[in-house]
Amino acid sequence: MVAIGHSNLDIFPLALGGNTFGWTSDESTSFEILDAFTAGGGNFIDTADSYTAFVDGNSGGESESVIGNWTAARGNRDDVVIATKVAQHPEFKGLTPKNIAAAAEASLRRLQSDHIDVYFAHTDSGDAPLVDTLAAFDSLIQDGKVRYVAISNFSADRVAEWLKVAHDNGFAAPVALQPHYNLVTRNAYESDLAPLAADNDLGVFPYFSLASGFLTGKYRVREDLEGGQPRKQLAKSYFTAKGLEVVDALSEIAEAHEEEIATVALAWLLHQPTVTAPIASASTISQLPALMAAPALTLSTDELARLDATSTAVSA
């Protein structure tokens, strides 16, 4: 188990992404995945109030509702750490104090909980001064509705500003950061955000940790990306000759360890000094074992060096 930054929350070092719940996983399948995740020692579940508004016929909040139904059915709310986010739900866009308060109440209802363990600002909407945004988050903490606040999709400059505003005004400091970070997307995080995370004891939860499935090895030829599924569209941005070299290196290392390619990609993230737990999602229960195996996989110095060298040429 590892601590989330300077919080008192201890978690299994693999976070289960809830973006598939209410999308590629119906409620029954989602329950199976959540049951298997917790049975395997997992306890951190990451979602957002906007999941899955991007799916035709959905309005947002579907993932939170599935998670809330599951914890209610299992009676295990106090056994799991739930993170959700505010700023992108169609009805609750932005980070104004009024919106944060209303969105939090809506999330609590869907989660069937009296508190959110980690509440992320999902995006830097810029529609309110940071001091007002932070005051609204702090009010939720003072009221016991949120335990800790965290940041996602903010630039390094804005994260630094957030930290200063919190310090200067006595607001609760953020405990975590959620950046876009994986073997084929490294530079933006490593050059600017990683030093801030290290200096301010922020737990780091990379999203797109498997590059929308590209780092599982299932997209090896252009024909594998045919079709209109959103995940395939996202994976196309990684599909280059250099990107495929990274997958080839992962494949060879995975074969040597008798592990899945995805396991090695996640293990590489866990070997990075600032990473607390990569976020990975599963649409079916069969995908979960490869994810859960990552924390136990130790990569050699030579293997890490090979992945670092191969991915440096492609990462943005």
Describe this structure in words.
The structure is a single chain. With 316 residues, the chain is an alpha/beta fold. The chain has a single domain (8-312), classed as TIM Barrel, CATH 3.20.20. Helix content is 41%, strand content 13%. The chain has helices at residues 27-39, 62-74, 97-111, 130-142, 156-169, 187-199, 230-235, 241-257, 261-270, 288-292, 301-312, and strands at residues 2-3, 10-11, 15-17, 44-46, 81-86, 88-89, 92-93, 116-121, 146-152, 176-178, 203-204, 279-280. The strands form 3 sheets. The protein has an 8-stranded parallel beta sheet, covered by helices on one side. Strands 1-2 form a two-stranded antiparallel ribbon. It has a two-stranded antiparallel sheet with strand order 6-7. α1 links the parallel β3 and β4.
Looking at CATH, the homologous superfamily is NADP-dependent oxidoreductase domain
The SSE string, one letter per element, is: EEEHEHEEEHEHEHEHEHHHEHH
Query: What share of residues is helical?
Result: 40-55%
Q: Determine and state the CATH class.
A: Alpha Beta
Give the amount of beta strand, in percent: 5-15%
Q: Biggest sheet, open or closed, and with what strands and sense?
A: 8 strands, parallel
Rg estimate, integer Å: 19 Å
CATH A-level architecture: Alpha-Beta Barrel
Write the CATH fold name.
TIM Barrel
The dominant shape is globular
Query: Number of helix segments?
Result: 11
Secondary-structure content class: alpha/beta
Q: Roughly what is the average pLDDT, rounded to an integer?
A: 95
Name the poorly predicted regions.
none
Q: Determine the N-to-C terminus distance.
A: 31 Å
Count of the separate structural domains? 1
Strand order of the largest sheet: 11-10-9-8-5-4-3-12
Total beta-strand segments: 12
